[in-house]
Specification:
The protein is α+β, with helices and mostly antiparallel strands and about 500 residues long. It is built from 15 helices and 19 strands. The protein has one domain (about 5-485): tRNA-splicing ligase RtcB (Alpha-Beta Complex), CATH 3.90.1860.10.
């Protein structure tokens, strides 16, 4: 390390680094970063560590302001940030959730093999690209009324989509919160947010959102993998990564203003206005939570629709019913959300608001929040990488409950900004290079959208996952590699 952080960071062990509480006057807890020597050497060059320290100012924060190994700079909180605040006397911060509320990952498994899919890969990717709306401002195939019908989406989540014939009821138990978080209040969602969201349900969007056809590359825990429906190398899986689209963005934008004004009235002083926060139990805090839950439900409905059209695309290409193809959902996890959970704090069960921004819930076996079929093994943790290397399926570990309020990394984490990635790759045929590796990439945004998301723009997800595995936040279950990717 060759920066000011040389004299600040304290290495706790092989996988943890501390920002001492006395680094800044006003920090209520220390900062805690999960990383190894290699990852910390890049993390210190980002502004994210300063954000870790700033989050430690939040009233009611307990234990530490945490960051996962995929940490990078974000709005208010770093992406990869985790912070738990006491419900009694603590605050909630929209910056601790982010603009894409309930951006998350859904994973499907199949009985198909690489040998069966490879000869039809181009046809399959064409079908997926045709059937699933993608791109900036993309509009979906579903038309809903921004008022009454939208209310159903915001309160019913994925179940709404299933009731419309857009999905399998068996998907719901293997979705976090069964695809519908309670206490969502549609009246807390503005007309502008509804108008933005109404044409976008069932759309992938742009940026780092994707749908990826994958092949199982390696299995680390065969028994756990079997429980998740992963049986052997060569098996085909699918990951869907998207969130709440314009509706979630507008909810965040609306409530940043509300919460910033409220924070001033409540006398909350923070070092960064992007951390604007209000007491959880205040009217403003409760309204934000209610609106955020609506946006989370919208996102689960969104991924449910996309999963349905994914199944239809496979059916079109392989001329077999999706059930005959063994297309079942492994799990669906949120990685931009704040949830009220009970955790041990200084030996006492305490109700907390756990902010996970670019972090994935990772609950261990025997957690009552898990579906019955996974209760004995633990929660599937879905960790996507970049479109040229790997993604991982992991399982929550008891160490996560002790060390990160049941949280883990959510992906690889950016190394370069989108602009820097495009400048570095100018003149390169990225899609052609990936095709030479056997990876078919289709994107509405052309060269720019592919360059922004090129493998070189990201950390190596294998290193990120190895830290979470080594720190006992998760256990690696299987590694998958991309065969085909669609992006906005």
């Amino acid at each position: 390390m060759t920066s000011k952080w040389d004299k600040v960071l304290r290495q706790v062990d092989d996988y943890r680094w501390e920002v001492p509480q006395d680094y800044k006057d006003g920090m209520r807890v220390p900062g805690l970063i999960y990383a190894d020597d290699l990852l910390i050497s890049s993390i210190i060059n980002d502004q994210a560590l300063e954000q870790v320290a700033n989050v430690a100012f939040l009233p009611g924060i307990v234990y530490a302001s945490m960051a996962m190994p995929d940490i990078h700079w974000g709005y208010g909180f770093p992406v990869g940030g985790v912070a738990a605040t006491k419900v009694d006397g603590g605050v909630i911060s929209p910056g601790g959730v982010g603009f894409d509320i309930n951006c998350g990952i859904r994973m499907l498994r199949t009985d198909l093999t690489e040998a069966e899919v490879r000869p039809r890969l181009d046809d399959l990717m064409d079908a997926l690209f045709r059937n699933i709306p993608t791109g900036m401002g993309s509009r979906g195939k579903i038309r809903i009324n921004p008022q009454q019908e939208m209310d159903q989406v915001l309160t019913r989540g994925a179940a709404w989509a299933v009731e419309q014939g857009l999905g399998d009821p068996e998907d719901l138990p293997v979705t976090e919160e069964s695809g519908c978080i309670t206490d969502a209040k549609p009246s807390a969602v503005s007309s502008r947010a509804r108008q933005r969201g109404a044409p976008q349900i069932g759309t992938l969007g742009s940026g780092n959102h994707f749908l990826e056809v994958q092949v199982v590359d390696e299995i680390y825990e065969p028994q756990v993998a079997q429980s998740f429906g992963i049986t052997a190398p060569g098996q085909i899986t699918i990951m869907i990564h998207c969130g709440s689209r314009g509706l979630g963005h507008q909810v965040c934008s609306d409530y940043i203003k509300v919460v910033e004004s409220a924070g001033q009235r409540y006398g909350i002083e923070l070092p960064d206005r992007q951390l604007a926060a209000a007491p959880i139990e205040s009217p403003e805090g409760q309204e934000y939570l209610a609106a955020m839950r609506c946006a989370a439900n919208f996102a689960w409905a969104n991924r449910q629709c996309i999963a349905h059209w994914t199944r239809e695309s496979f059916q079109q290409v392989f001329q077999r019913d999706p059930k005959d193809l063994g297309m079942r959902q492994v799990y669906d996890v949120a990685h931009n959300i704040a949830k009220i959970e009970t955790h041990q704090v200084e030996g006492k069960a305490t109700r907390l608001c756990v902010h996970r921004k670019g972090a994935t819930r990772a609950f261990p076996a025997h957690s009552p929040d898990l579906p019955e079929k996974y209760r004995e093994v633990g929660q599937p943790v879905l960790i996507p990488g970049d479109m040229g290397r790997y993604s991982f399926l992991a399982v929550g570990s008891e160490g996560a409950m002790e060390g990160s309020f049941g949280s883990s990394c959510h992906g690889a984490g950016r190394l370069q900004s989108r602009g820097a990635a495009k400048r570095a790759l100018k003149g390169r045929d990225i899609q052609g290079e990936l095709r030479e590796q056997g990876i078919v990439v289709k994107a509405h945004g052309g060269w720019a959208s592919v360059a922004e998301e090129a493998p070189s723009a990201y950390k190596d997800v294998s290193q990120v996952v190895e830290v979470c595995h080594g720190a006992n936040l998760v256990k690696k279950v299987a590694r998958v590699r991309p065969m085909g990717v669609i992006k906005g």
